[in-house]
User: Fold XRE family transcriptional regulator from Nonomuraea mangrovi.
Amino acid sequence: MHSMARRLRNAAGDNVRDLPDHEALVRSIRRWESGRIASLSERYRLLFCRALGVSESDLFSEAAPTPRPPTASHDIEAMSSFRGADRRVGGGHLYATVLGYLERDVAPRLFSGSDGTTAFVAAAAFTEMAGWMAHDAGQDDAAEHHFSRALDLVGVG
Assistant:
């Protein structure tokens, strides 16, 4: 959390004085990562992208200009993007984003019937990823829940 707050302050450049103090920024990051803040303002979205060196559509999938079709290649691309960002900044920083991807992009496909078992395998993979990210963020109860759900989903898939 503290390293991400420093990254955001560095990314703000000359506008750093407009940011809250370091500890308040850390608390805001924790609230966002835990899902208590549903979305970030445009300013913070841009700061996170600048600090992490990724595009807005890669970091905040709901910000993509045009929705992509729900395909296995889309899931593979998303998984690759999340893993790359995880290696750069740690999964705890992406936990809410991965949960959002599961809710918006994967979950609706579980019941549509048009995706066969692919949707269940994707749900299992992203749910496991969310488990590790929850663990990285110190949320071990949530991590255990994700791992259990991932096992159930892979069994169906």
The chain has two domains: 1-53, 65-157.
